[in-house]
Design goal:
The chain is mainly beta. It has one domain. It is built from 1 helix and 6 strands; from the N terminus they run E-E-E-E-E-E-H. The radius of gyration is 17 Å and the shape is elongated. The relative contact order is 0.28. Bound molecules: zinc ion.
Length: about 80
C-alpha cells in the first residue's frame, strides 16, 4: 500500500501496481509500452464500522506483438 488515508468518512487505501511492464492479457507477451492509466476502485467494505475504499492506480500497456489477437482486433 502506498498511502492510507483516515478521515471521518472511513479509510481510503491508495495502491499502485508495481513494475514497469506487464504481460498482455491475450498473448502473454510482455509489453513495456504504457498506454495510459486509470483509477480503479477495488472494494467498498466496512471493517469494524469504518468504510474502507481501496483505490488502485492501474497502468494500461499496449501489446507490441503483431501476431496478438488483441493487436489485430479491428476494435483497436
Ligand atoms: Zn498481446
Amino acid at each position: 500500500m502506498e498511502l492510507v488515508e483516515r478521515s471521518v468518512n472511513g479509510i481510503t487505501m491508495h495502491a499502485r501496481v508495481r513494475g514497469t511492464d506487464a504481460p498482455c492479457s491475450r498473448c502473454q507477451n510482455t509489453s513495456a509500452r504504457v498506454h495510459g492509466r486509470y483509477l480503479r476502485r477495488l472494494s467498498d467494505a466496512a471493517v469494524s464500522g469504518a468504510r474502507v475504499v481501496i483505490e488502485l492506480l492501474v497502468r494500461r500497456f499496449r501489446c507490441l506483438n503483431d501476431a496478438c489477437p488483441a493487436v489485430r482486433s479491428p476494435s483497436r
